[in-house]
Amino acid sequence: MNEKNNKGKTRHEEFKVTGGEIIDRIKELIHQGNIRRIIIKNENGATLIEIPLTLGLVGAALLPVLAAVGAIGALVARMTIVIEKIVE
Fold first, then answer.
1. Are 38 and 26 in contact (CB under 8 A)?
2. Tell me: the pLDDT tens digits for 44-76?
3. The whole model's pTM is what?
4. Cα–Cα–Cα angle for 76, 53, 37, nearest 5°?
5. Could you identify which of 3, 21, 37, 59 might form a hypothetical disulfide with 84, taking C-beta atoms 3.0 to 4.6 angstroms apart as the criterion?
6. C-alpha distances out from residue 53 to 44, 66, 77, Å
7. How far apart are CA 62 and CA 58, in angstroms?
């Protein structure tokens, strides 16, 4: 399947969160449904993890991702979540 067929534009939004808030915020963002990618950065702006989201990524497939995000949240006090949204 060819993924070059992007009909919608993308927009980036940033949210500052603490380690304890990150899992709930990620779950909330995933449930919005129009998010293409989630990027988690540290205080210095370095990317810690990029999570590409596809239409088929739901339920049990998210558990390893959420576990990794939880581990990052335990190690990093403050971070930024950058989301790439599809704007149609």
1. yes
2. 899 988 888 775 556 666 777 778 888 888 888
3. 0.74
4. 55
5. 37
6. 24, 13, 25
7. 6
CA separation, residue 10 to residues 7, 19, 35, 36, 83 (Å): 10, 27, 9, 8, 10
Residue pair 36/84 in contact (Cβ under 8 Å)? The answer is yes
Q: Where are the domains of the chain?
A: 13-87
Q: What CATH number has the domain spanning 13-87?
A: 3.30.1490
Q: Are 80 and 41 in contact (CB under 8 A)?
A: yes
How many CA atoms lie less than 13 Å away from 55 in the CB half-sphere? 2
* pLDDT recorded at residue 16: 92
